[in-house]
Amino acid sequence: MTRNELMFGMRFLASQTDAMAGEGSPRFGFRRLGLGACRRDYRYPEDAGMPLRGMPAVSAVIPIGLADLEALTGASIDEERRACVGDATERLFAWSRLLAQRYREAGLEPLLLADATLASRDGRLLAWELALDGFRVVPRRPGATLWEDIRLLCQAEAYLVHPAAFPLARTLTLRLLLQDLAGRAKAGREAGPLAGFSGLRPEALGRPGWPLLLTSRGLGACLAGGSAMGVEHVDTADDNAVFCALPASPVDVEERRERLGVLSSGEALRLLRLSGCPAKGVWHAMAVGRVAEAIARKVQAKGGRIDPDLCLAGGLVHDIAKGRRRHEAVGALVLQSLGLPGLARLVKDHSDVVLPEGKPVTEREIVYLADKYCYGPTFVPLQERFGQKLDIFGSRPGARAGIARRLRHARELEARLARELGESPEAIAAGVLGARRAGGES
Ligand SMILES: [Fe+2]
Questions:
Q1: Which of 258, 284, 313 marks a domain boundary?
Q2: How far is CA 336 from CA 19, 217, 250, 331, in A?
Q3: Of 131, 158, 186, which is closest to residue 32 (Cα–Cα)?
Q4: Is residue 439 in a domain?
């Protein structure tokens, strides 16, 4: 027996002993996320940057096997589909590692449950690799159902079940479910935590996605042979929650994985809606997104290393925390906590930007300038936009100088882009927003 085999065997035995030892085993199944008050109505801007308070004990489980996937999704995985992804066992383990890392980032230490895939030598080697990296990998018991294993191995008030074949669900989906759970636990404290609640499931593109959140009641229903009956659905701004990597080609999965930090326009708009953004805010966001994307495409055409999709998404969510004090910084915190650091960077500085000569224009400067061209959903030139600010705030001490400084910075950036593009970004913005002329009329 090699050292690796020995270590995996010892971990497995220890985890089994832990699980058999009964309730509350601190080494297995869940991590408490803290106690305290929690708002019932979850909204991303208010709560997303905050620690999750009032959270019941939650256990996250990642089933790795194909048999479990078939049982959970009701789909049969034929040989042809398996062939699409090459060695399915190897990919399932790689995906489970991806998912486990995301759960860790969200504050949960998931349990990886591997079924018959472990019977092969490859499967055992892959499991040892995970175990040596500190992930908790346990083989499924022959003859037991997934729900029976979960009940045996995890002691918790709620369970997140997430098949490894859905590896690209974003942190924001985990956060949405956990925060909803915390809110319900708080609201239902008098009647008994989570009384009457079976679970919750994210939904995107009109389809139910993953993870599935089950309460003890929901798990009990599954154990009794029913499906996850009574589980509620909640919209998530994350199409990856429904994306199954198994029928997709490895290239498609890799491309999606690289784009995890960039929301599609549909996702960004749903995120705005989930954050409680009013309709007029959405109109403004769409205008900024369209202008930012159009300028980015021109920069890209001139050879600049710019991601127009990131500019579009950044423009759409740049005011996600509008209405709050220092909304740029709060918005950045919100997006950071939702696992979107690239978008957070764009949002953090959108009131004033200084770009030193010699440094290339990035998505941050483009979203910033696009915002300055949009008054609500309507095109305005810089002079007019900052003139409005002077009219409103100019009488406050110090405000006039600050507004004049920001106007100077915006003009410097506008002039630089005009030089680099050979056309004025103002004209691009006016064209996108349908202004009659690039001089302020709209
Ligand atoms: Fe804005």
A1: 258
A2: 35, 33, 28, 9
A3: 158
A4: no
Ligand 1 centroid from CA 280, angstroms = 11
177 CA to centre of ligand 1 in angstroms: 29
pTM: 0.82
CA of 376 to the centre of ligand 1 (A): 8
Identify any residues that bridge with 199 across adjacent strands, giving them in sequence order: 214
Residue 75 lies in a domain: yes
Q: Give the CATH number for residue 319.
A: 1.10.3210
Q: Are residues 25 and 164 in the same domain?
A: yes
Residues 22 and 140 in one domain: yes
pLDDT of residue 200: 92
**In angstroms, what is the span from residue 169 Cα to ligand 1's centroid?**
28
**What digits encode the pLDDT tens for the residues 153-183?**
998 889 999 999 999 999 999 988 988 888 8
**Domain containing 67: what range?**
3-258
Render pLDDT for 13-42 as a digit per residue (tens, 0 to 9). 444 444 433 333 322 222 222 222 222 334
Q: Looking at the structure, tell me whether residues 304 and 409 fall in a common domain.
A: yes
Q: Which residue has the tokens 């004049």?
A: 404
CB atoms within 10 A of CB 20: 10
